[in-house]
Amino acid sequence: MTVFVVQEVLGRNLAPAMKFGKLQLLLGAKTNLMLGTTNVVRELKKHLIDFNDDDYLLLMGDPAAIGLVCAVAAQHNGGKFTVLKWDRQEAMYYPVSIDVHGYSPPKEKLGELHV
Length: 115
Prior knowledge:
115 residues, 3-stranded parallel sheet, two-stranded antiparallel sheet, 21% helix, globular
């Protein structure tokens, strides 16, 4: 299991996400998408080539970069990916499964972390 961190945000404590897997940073804090995305998309495709149902996306950083990462992850995994959503009250991450094709499994199959 890997937690793919979209973009480095300096000073952010990512320790709570480590319970979901090894953290892998996809883009540095200074990555700029304003001048073009071709090289960034190529790099993301390399990093996410083995993305699967056991992996997570930690959505932080530039909204355009977040969109690219979600698109590439979905492309590599049949339209499905899981993001980690921060709950301020509980001070912890919860996984949220997304299927861009609109399929939603019954609650019984989600498991206790996905309810």
